[in-house]
Amino acid sequence: MKLYTFGASHTEGYYDMEFTTYKQYRDWLGVSDNKDMPPIWVELLSNKLNCDSYVNYGKGASSNAEIFFSFCNTCTKIEKGDIVIINWASTLRQMWIKDTQFASMAPANSIDDESEKTIPFIRETYDNIRDKRIHPNFVWETVNYERIIDAYAEAIGFKIYYWFTDDTLLATTQEFLGFQNNDKYLISDLIVKHYGKQIEDIISPHQGDITTSQYFKNKEVYIPCIEQIKKLSRDDNKCCITFGVFGKYGGGSIEEDTNGEVKDMYHMGKSGMIIQAELFYNYIKNNQ
Fold first, then answer.
1. What is the second-level CATH architecture of the domain 2-91+134-187+270-286?
2. From 68's CA, which of 30, 38, 60, 74 has a CA 20 to 30 Å away?
3. Which contiguous run of DSSP H or E holds residue 83?
């Protein structure tokens, strides 16, 4: 049995040492070789599941389209009995072409001065795409990716799981698609336990079906809803609801694990990686 993982930086882990806070975390730990960094959740989970091996295709800043492409490029290697875990990232990220390679255009990525001078309307295009991609209808992007992946998983005979670091995707999936009744969504039981009622209270006044709810039709409704949903994890000093759950069980961010010396609340530190692996393992074993 082999474990395959796909996603963005929250799956990739500390391998990309071009990332400033990872360098700072390494220095804080007193580690000189990247190989000596704390094991990430993928390695820990693979060991807990007694996998023969694991392959991690996580890549920092990936859009969900890139994550889906990564799965497609790998899918013929996956065999019956294997386990696949996909981390859906921010819907604000848009797959783009940079030079000759696919890349992600995301709010965190700045537009350099040269591009602004040489590419007509790049700022307006960027802002327009960002403003559109905040819409909760982008849940259909990942839902339709999942339909393809689920059908392939069933045909081949491997087990597929998903998890979210985008709170809009998570909340929309919970409220309109019933993820708490579907065991393919990792730790959905704990998300419902700790945040489910709060999410329901935010969205339920605008309920209806997925085609008629004002949550999808009215910007004056969905923008405040999304802000309130994101505030749930911010109030717990986490970047997303899933990490908020990890925090309930002792999982810390890099910032928390370094007592605030490395300013990174967006990625798990050593304690967070351990808790993430533990909670994922328990969910998988309890839902076999």
1. 3-Layer(aba) Sandwich (3.40)
2. 38
3. strand 83-88
**Residue environment code for 33-63, b if the CB has 16+ CB neighbours within 10 A, otherwise e:** eeeebbbbbbbbbbebbebeebebbbbbbbb
**pTM value > 0.85:** yes
Three-class DSSP category at 225: helix
In the structure, how many helices (H) and strands (E) does the chain have?
A: 15, 6
Q: 40-99: per-residue pLDDT in tens?
A: 999 999 999 999 999 999 998 899 999 999 999 999 999 999 999 999 999 988 777 767
Q: Over 70: is that where the pLDDT of 200 sits?
A: yes
Is the pLDDT confidence value at 108 over 60? no
Q: What is the pLDDT of residue 94?
A: 78
| Tokens encoding 95 | 């797959």
DSSP-assigned beta bridge partners for residue 2: 53
Length of the chain: 288
What does the pLDDT average to over 217-232? 91
DSSP 163: E
Question: Residue 226 CA to chain centroid, in angstroms?
Answer: 16
CB 247 within 8 A of CB 236: yes
- Domain layout of the chain by residue ranges: 2-91+134-187+270-286
Q: Which of 264, 268, 240 is nearest to 252 (CA)?
A: 268
CA distance linking residue 165 with residue 160, whole number of Å: 17
Tell me the C-alpha distance between 285 and 288, whole Å: 6
CA distances 29 to 109, 261, 270, Å, are 28, 11, 10
Q: Give the chain's mean pLDDT.
A: 89
Q: Do residues 277 and 44 lie in contact, with contact meaning Cβ atoms separated by under 8 Å?
A: yes
Closest CA to 57 of 47, 72, 44: 72
